[in-house]
Amino acid sequence: MSSNEAPAEGGPPIGHRRRYLLLAVLLLALVIIAILWPIGKRALSLARHLQALQAALDEDPLTLVTSEGRETLVAELEGVESDLGALQHYLAPAFVLTPHLGWVPYAGDTLRALPDMLDMAHNLSAAGTTALDALSAFDSLMMGSPSTESPHGDMTQKLLEAIIAAGPQLKVAADEVEEAVAARERFYDAELLSPLAACRRTL
Fold it and tell me: In the predicted model, what is the mean pLDDT of the chain?
């Protein structure tokens, strides 16, 4: 038996222990990859949905008016909402630690605020989806032609019907906005990293 393979007292040979250690490191790496892979996929998907939303609004700010344009925005917002919800789910175990990470240089406040930032973004995307869905109640007003016999009465009736139809969804959207505002207040004074601080100032 070679000297480097000599067994230690009360334990397996050194060569075996090295193999066990290497195996443990490999298993740990696989676990980390398994955890980070879905998070990375969702983060990339979120970025794509946000870029698509920005592109749609930059191309035609009146997209909200047409039902086809709203369908595109709703689809992207639903993607944003889904990705944010998944990220909240994947990161939930780490949120137990984030309140205690304020000491981390430069990023401490951002790490502490991360759960509330995701909560705010998720509620805002949900509110946007709900509000856009509610606007479909007004399509008949924007695309239909008023009656030639009693245009004002017909238009008023359609407007009232649209408001009544959209009311419940608009109430839900308002509640979601309130939850987003409450989440924002929880990290209002946090010293966030520059890109996130710029985003917060726009809200």
Answer: 79
